[in-house]
Amino acid sequence: MAKTDQTHSSSRIKTNTEAMDVYVEKAAVKNQFLAALIACLAAVSVGMCVGFTSPAEPDMKLPGRRFRLTVAEASLFASLINIGALCGGLIAGFIVDFLGRKSALIYMAIPNVVGWLCIIYAESIGLLYFGRLITGICAGIACLNTPVYMTEIASPEIRGILGSGFQLFVNFGITFTYTVGAFVPWSYLAVVTAVIPILLMALMIPMPESPVWLVRQGRVAEAMHALKWLRGSDVDVREEVENLRDQQNADGAISIREFLKPSLYKPLILLLTQMFIQQFAGINAVVFNAAQIFEMAGSSMDPKIEAIIVAAVMVMASIVAATLIDKAGRRFLLLLSAACMAVSLMVLGGYFYLYAHDKESAANVSWLPIICLILYCFVFNIGFGPIPWLMMGELFPSQARGLASSLVTASSWTMAFIITKTFQDMQDALQPYGAFWFFGCVCVAAIPFTWFFVPETKGKSIQEIQMYFNKEI
What is the tally of helices (H) and strands (E) in the chain? Predict the structure, then answer.
């Protein structure tokens, strides 16, 4: 009887211990999600900045508004975010390595607010342009800093879902801007947009700094404290800190010569190509001109409502991506994304070809553009939307992450500027159907590239991923 009681007692102790471990693990995951969620306010701000022009431009052209922009002025206003983000991307690596990931998120919110205040109170087009440029610079920095911060605080098991949160909240920002912009003047919309970086500053202060960055600075005690908060107070984080220190010692200092090594130039080329595909698949041309595309297609629905629907689909797709990315893997979602984008863009191009040559027949399928764009936006946001940004935080060694990510971010915004600025010229030269067929061909080319060159990083630690490229030497 005593033996039975002892067995039952041992079972209860074991059960209670396991339950406590699960509780601690869940609490730690909640902390990681909380820190990532607050950091993603920067992504919301990026999305609102990107989506601002779609509802704002038509309003700015109306008689009686403070500004009545010409077509050329509106095009420049839309494109200035890309120029600013290019500049921001180039300096982002230095800023996040110097200030730290968390501190950079806080301090960069200040000029972001200033930029929106310039737009709100602008009495001249020059000040309007200046505000747009400043918010673009902050967007470029956020596009590097936010994914890197989330990658560096996350456990390998949830790094995919946290990393994909960046694209999710960018899309949420776009959707929110489209929705609010459909009902209020552009100046009121700018006021709403200026609130987000203020919230980011306030809420980010109590969050932990990146443990990876802290170890690089020799602040090991602070790194352990940050990891205790992120992993759970009852978790022994000494092994993880030692691994980070060993990795830091193995990586050494960064120099230009390091970029000649396959362990660095291979992931750099891979990510630059992914960013090329991301932008030349036409996503920014679609987002910046969503309402105009539907109007051009002759759809009977209010173009602003259609644009909101497309943006909402992007949010839903990002949620799907977040749930699948650590289950299905990066490669599968990239391949699915490229194939489905190619189909939707080719069909969309076919519709515009029909519209150009037989408007009556096109009127019978006026629903086709919104179906194609919904499919396109959905599959983009489960693959080539979030994954390149996630992999940017995964593939580079820690000592090169700032500089290499700057190059990738700057290249992304450079290509975004090219596509946004030349989209109208491309339509004039190739016709709308030719422009969408061009984007579709880029997506077709993405399939063999992904199949042969993109490694699977699902469930692997940062150290294991870097070992993969070191083995290729």
Answer: 23, 0
- Residue closest to 95 by CA, chosen among 49, 146, 44: 146
Q: Is 326 left (phi over 0), alpha (psi -120 to 50) or beta?
A: alpha
| pLDDT, tens only, 66-111 | 667 777 787 788 888 888 998 998 898 889 989 999 999 999 999 9
Nearest to 245 by CA among 213, 216, 210, 225: 216
Please give the pLDDT value at position 465.
76
443: left (phi over 0), alpha (psi -120 to 50) or beta: alpha
Please tell me which residue, 146 or 250, carries the higher pLDDT value: 146
**Fold equal for 26-207 and 259-472:** yes
Query: Considering only CA atoms, which of 353, 351, 347, 376 is closest in space to residue 365?
Result: 351
Question: Is-contact 271 395, C-beta < 8 A?
Answer: yes
Q: How many CB atoms lie within 10 A of CB 11?
A: 10
| 359 alpha carbon, distance to own chain's centre | 38
Q: Which of 132, 134, 47, 137 is nearest to 89 (CA)?
A: 137
At 196, list the tokens: 């987000």
Whole-angstrom Cα distance, residue 107 to residue 147? 17
Locate 382 and state its tokens. Answer: 């489960």
Q: Give the integer Cα–Cα distance in Å for 150 and 32.
A: 8
Q: Does domain 259-472 fall into CATH 3.40.50.1400?
A: no
Residues 6+ apart with CB under 8 A from 50: 81, 139, 170, 173, 174, 284, 287, 288
CA torsion angle for 337, 342, 345, 350 (degrees, to 10)? Answer: -150
Inter-residue contact 252 to 458 (CB < 8 Å): no
Domain boundaries, the chain: 26-207, 259-472
Q: Is the pLDDT confidence value at 43 over 90? A: yes
The reported pTM is: 0.78
Q: Are 139 and 84 in contact (CB under 8 A)?
A: yes
We find that the CATH architecture of domain 26-207 is Up-down Bundle (1.20)
Distances (CA, A) of 149 to 31, 213, 413: 14, 9, 20
- Hunting for tokens 């660095």 — which residue is that? 264
Of 378, 371, 314, nearest to 175 by C-alpha is: 314
